[in-house]
């Protein structure tokens, strides 16, 4: 069973930066490598949304709300996915999760990012 563990969240002032990490276990490197991975977020009272995605070949795609500020990357050898978040805004406050894009694995606990104004 695949397990996803997100880390790196915390409290940050508006305009600041944060780097999130996601470690996948319980799957082989070859399985991890072929999947499109994404970072999702869920703000209080809102649905979970996909904010960034990265293919096995490291092609990336971003939601309009984070384009130009967030950068997703991956290390297939380590089965890790990262999200570099710059120029953070209060509206980026949410619990952030990583998972496959499409038919997701089970969700991890997420990591809380709180951006103060």
Structure commentary:
With 117 residues, this protein is mainly beta. It is built from one helix and ten strands; from the N terminus they run βββαβββββββ. The termini are far apart. A six-stranded mixed sheet has the order 2-10-9-4-5-6, with no helix packed on it. Strands 1-3-8-7 form a four-stranded antiparallel sheet, with no helix packed on it.
Please state the structural category: mainly beta
What portion of residues is helical?
Answer: under 10%
Q: Return residue spans where pLDDT drops below 50 for at least 5 consecutive residues.
A: none
Task: State the end-to-end distance.
Answer: 40 Å
Please state the overall shape, judged from the principal axes of the Cα atoms: globular
Largest sheet: 6 strands, mixed
Number of strands: 10
Secondary-structure element order, N to C: EEEHEEEEEEE
The Cα radius of gyration reads 13 Å
Give the averaged pLDDT, no decimals.
96
Widest β-sheet, arrangement of strands = 2-10-9-4-5-6
Strand percent estimate: over 45%
What's the total helix number? 1
């Amino acid at each position: 069973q695949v397990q996803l563990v997100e880390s790196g969240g915390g409290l940050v002032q508006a305009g600041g930066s944060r780097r999130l990490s996601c470690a996948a276990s319980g799957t082989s490197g070859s399985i991890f490598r072929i999947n499109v991975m994404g970072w999702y977020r869920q703000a209080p009272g809102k649905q979970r949304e996909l904010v960034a995605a990265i293919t096995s070949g490291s092609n990336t795609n971003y939601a309009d709300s984070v384009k130009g500020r967030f950068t997703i990357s991956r290390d297939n050898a380590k089965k890790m996915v990262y999200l570099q978040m710059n120029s953070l805004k209060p509206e980026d406050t949410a619990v952030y999760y990583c998972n496959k894009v499409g038919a997701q694995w089970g969700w991890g606990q997420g990591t809380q990012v709180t951006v103060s104004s």
